[in-house]
Design brief:
The protein is an all-alpha fold. The longest helix is centred in the middle third of the chain and has 41 residues.
């Protein structure tokens, strides 16, 4: 016979269960704000899930979640990659650490299975973005000079750099726009927040990744509302809108002109030391590395040492290039075509399981996957701490209900 669990232990488990959900929701607020706060919330969430017990009931159904399994397989590939890696042990350990975030997807799913906490978590994320935008406006108006991020280049860089924050703000703008069109409650509030967020992104922010992600997400929004008619509408409306912004926003115009001028400069001089010129050079050199070991790559954590070995130190990168500013190239350099296929399988599994999601979170899930697919061409989105945590957090948050539905089906 099984011993009866004492009331004290049950009480501790119940409190731990609640704490895990609260800290998981708080994690949505922490990710755009602070690395330290993110680490604290993650630690509390995982410890609370352990103390809450009932592990078999929580995690056994996750083995049926294809998204979680895809994440585990990809991380396992990085473990195998560490065995044959050409990098030294410190680089291998760092490489594994950067991609161990994949394990957070299945680990966090039990804390995100209930609709109530899903909504609270999304509100928490949006709340962090609203605070950042408010401070961005006060900074721009010279009412404040608040910057927690040292290397700020615009009023928007309050808590994060312009690349990370522009990515987060583009997604927040999409969510506010979607809610404006689909929710009757607080419609005007969502509309105003969409306008404020969009203005901040296009007029105060210097992160061009956000511009690209925003344009893609607006196209997706049109498609979600009007299907192919929406796509045609977006093809007409979006260029007109962006043209208007181009002539109205000095920041947007400067950033756009820089892209054009950088590309032209690179065509004449492939050693052009510009933002886009460097990225094109990184891509070119990364492809040279990949061609030498196309199948399994150089192993986990190998990009920086292999790049330095073959191409040396680049101007502006005295300590060596850490990533090629492209997640697809970074993974392929380390794990070859096999690793790239596994990474794409994770993304495609998310897309394939979208029909199983509830209608109220399905559009956001579509936007998150699309934003990450596009953003990964411009930056090493998963390798980077903030955007990598964002991806695993929203994957666990939005795809956890698939596990719950499967469990209910089999009862």
């Amino acid at each position: 016979m099984h011993e009866k669990t004492s009331p004290l232990i049950i009480q501790i488990q119940n409190k731990a269960e609640l704490t895990s959900k609260i800290s998981f929701a708080a994690l949505g607020f922490a990710i755009p704000i602070s690395v330290a706060a993110t680490s604290i919330c993650l630690t509390i969430t995982i410890i609370s899930l352990i103390l809450a017990g009932n592990w078999r009931a929580k995690y056994k159904p996750i083995l049926t979640n294809k998204v979680a399994i895809s994440a585990i397989i990809l991380f396992f590939a990085f473990i195998i990659g560490s065995i044959y890696s050409s990098a030294t042990l410190p680089y291998i350990i760092k490489g594994l650490h950067k991609y161990d975030k994949l394990l957070l997807i299945p680990l966090l799913m039990p804390a995100a299975a209930e609709k109530k906490w899903q909504k609270i978590a999304i509100y928490a994320f949006l709340g962090a973005i609203i605070i950042n935008i408010f401070l961005a406006y006060t900074n721009a108006l010279h009412l404040t000079n608040i910057y927690f991020f040292n290397k700020h280049s615009s009023p928007m860089d309050v808590f994060r750099g312009h690349i990370d924050m522009s990515f987060f703000i583009a997604i927040a703008a999409y969510i506010f726009a979607h809610r404006t069109l689909t929710k009757t409650n607080y419609r005007w509030t969502n509309c105003i927040l969409f306008l404020l967020t969009t203005y901040a992104l296009l007029f105060l922010n210097t992160g061009r990744t956000g511009y690209l992600v925003f344009a893609v997400l607006i196209c997706i929004l049109f498609w979600q509302q009007l299907r192919w008619k929406g796509v045609l509408t977006a093809i007409i409306v979006l260029p007109l809108f962006l043209t208007t912004v181009y002539f109205s926003s000095d920041t947007f115009r400067t950033g756009t002109n820089a892209v054009i001028n950088n590309v032209i400069a690179y065509q004449y001089d492939q050693q052009s030391h510009t933002s886009i010129g460097f990225r094109m050079l990184f891509m070119h050199n990364s492809l040279i590395l990949i061609k030498k070991h196309p199948v399994i790559g150089y192993g986990t954590g190998s990009f920086k040492p292999e790049f330095m070995k073959q191409f040396g130190i680049l101007p502006g990168f005295p300590k060596g290039l850490v990533t090629p500013h492209n997640e697809y190239l970074l993974i392929t350099t380390q794990l070859g075509i096999i690793g790239l296929i596994l990474y794409l399988c994770l993304l495609l599994t998310q897309i394939a399981t979208l029909p199983k999601l509830d209608q109220d979170i399905k559009p956001i899930a579509q936007a998150v996957v699309a934003a990450f697919i596009v953003g990964a061409f411009c930056n090493s989105m998963f390798y980077t701490t903030a955007t990598g945590h964002f991806f695993v957090y929203f994957t666990a948050l939005l795809w956890a209900p698939i596990t719950k539905k499967h469990e209910q089906t089999n009862r």
